Amino acid sequence: MRELDGSSAGGQFLRTALTLSVLEDVPIRVENVRGDRDDPGLGNQHLAVLETMAEICDAEVSGAELGAETVEFDPGGAGAGGLAGGSYAVDIGTAGSVTLLFDALLPLATVLEAPLSVTATGGTDVEWSPPLEYFRQIKLPLLGAHGLVASCEVDRRGFYPDGGGRATLRIGPSSLEPLALERRGDLEGVRLYSTESASLADRDVAHRQLEGALERLDLAGAGRNADDGGLEVLERQERTAESPSPGSALVIRVDHGTGIAGFDALGERGKPAERVGEDAADAANRFLEGDAAVDRHMGDQLLIFLALAGGRVRVPRETDHVETSRALLEAFGREVDLERREEGAVVSRSPDLP
Questions:
Q1: 1-81 has which CATH code?
Q2: 301 is in an annotated binding site
Q3: Which among 46, 146, 256, 321 is annotated as catalytic?
Q4: Considering only CA atoms, which of 26, 104, 53, 15 is closest in space to residue 332?
Q5: 45 labelled as ligand-binding?
Q6: Superfamily of structural domain 187-289
Q7: Helix (H) or strand (E) holding 298
Q8: Could you report the per-residue pLDDT of 283-332, keeping only the tens digit for each?
Q9: This model's pTM is above 0.85
Q10: Is there a binding annotation on residue 297?
Q11: Any catalytic annotation for residue 146?
């Protein structure tokens, strides 16, 4: 059994550890779960990931209860023998993040023998996690370009505090290709996805968010030659969605020759809708001024796929998540190298390594 200490990490450490346990067919014991948080131990969303992973793998588990700070998980050979796939449903029970649950499941595509479908109820657009459109419009297309077979359908949005959103992740057996994201290709354009709950439609929140973003975005020339004509708006979507709670979200996607980057902001009570768009645009402008191939959040999320498929990824900066994830991957024999640059860093692993 692999002994792991989460005293200086959060929920991502546990989710990645569970995924690696299945992929490597190694039982794990995680102590001090979410030890660096003010409310350590399993929360609703972390418990949902644990229980879902256990059900898919028919794993043996101890510590599967709210507040538990020690968890044991034995996949029982599920990953080594290939996962059977199937259809599952999980209710997180709060506005706990649906997209973080889905994130933990995506790497299982590499050991699936048949398609896997998981329908989750919870928060689709909540703090400290990727909004649903980031997951659907940035992460899935980026990984899809490297061999991942996956799609996500949404039935209902779930904002804080009630959650109640529902989405379905479908994953097919996949063979990943090495990640080739060291150099940013020529900038192609931006896409904007603005969503409001039906309760906010009379205030035109989705439209105002989008307009705030467009006014702030540096489409004329940040990070580009002055004579290249600027950056084109390739797509703009405004959605009004049913949801138990009022809320809104804006996601900006930047397309370039070798990949995709994404930036987002959530609506808050008392925060003008235009400011939501401006916040996402500010993050996009900072990215455009540099030369990284992916945004900083995606840089964190790609490490496990880099460990599985190999390749090279240029990230805007070396975050705490990057360092924590590298140490965890090393504990499973999946070392990821890091080369610091004047701006950001390159994380890499040889595709020839087992």
A1: 3.30.110
A2: yes
A3: 321
A4: 26
A5: no
A6: RNA 3'-terminal phosphate cyclase, insert domain (3.30.360.20)
A7: helix 296-301
A8: 999 999 988 999 999 999 999 999 999 999 999 988 888 999 999 999 99
A9: yes
A10: yes
A11: no
